[in-house]
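Entry 14: structure prediction run for ABC transporter ATP-binding protein. Input pasted below.
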Amino acid sequence: HGEGALASLRDVRMRYGKVVALDGIGLDVRGGEVLALLGPNGAGKTTAISLLLGLVRADEGEVRLFGRDPQTIEARRGIGVMLQDAALPPTLRVGELIRLTASYYPSPRGVAESAELAGVADLLQRPYGKLSGGQQRRVQFALALCGNPRLLFLDEPTVGMDIEARQKLWNAIRALVADGVSIVLTTHYLEEAEALADRVCVMARGRIVSEGSVESLRARIALKRVWCATH
Ligand code: ATP
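Run finished. Output tokens:
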């Protein structure tokens, strides 16, 4: 495994019945970086995150979180998670939700600080169910960071949001990165990877088909266009 990687996959294969979700992938999450897993529906992005979180086990290969088996409690300390389709009690107020969630962790952030970082300080008295989709997503982000994680997993954090809501969440993510948190996120949007990521792994059909900085990725796409137009 990569020296100093916070989390890693090595030669990982994963099937759901006959469906191959991951077809032999390897990746390292480095300290201090924002790594984006970019790809279309069914590429295997969520499966990669689920493995790193220890929610599912690989059929083959090795998975490490802070150098350990991600299904151990020790490995899970220090991570924060924002998955797709979070269902939260609609009548609870945002402040209560953050306070209760923070109480699960040994050294949480205060409610005010978590709310400030996530850009929901003005929503603390509002019932969760009365918020817009974009506001709910930012509250989910506050819940992911309130435990004071070193490493944060965000599965399609801005899917379905309008551009204004998306930019607000991007800013919230940037504030956390400035605070020293490392991030793995999945996205369908090249602009999102461009806005946030230091490094991108492009996934398709259970494989990593391209990897590098967003600039190098753009250069390759442009080159391919020129190539296709002239041949
Ligand atoms: P999306 O962008 O839609 O979230 P993804 O890149 O995250 O897609 P995965 O959710 O990891 O992709 O899915 C990879 C493959 O595994 C897909 O073909 C999907 O249909 C299949 N798959 C995922 N979860 C299950 C499951 N619980 N049971 C059966 N097949 C599954």
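Notes: Residues 214-230 form the longest helix (17 residues). Will compare against the previous run tomorrow.
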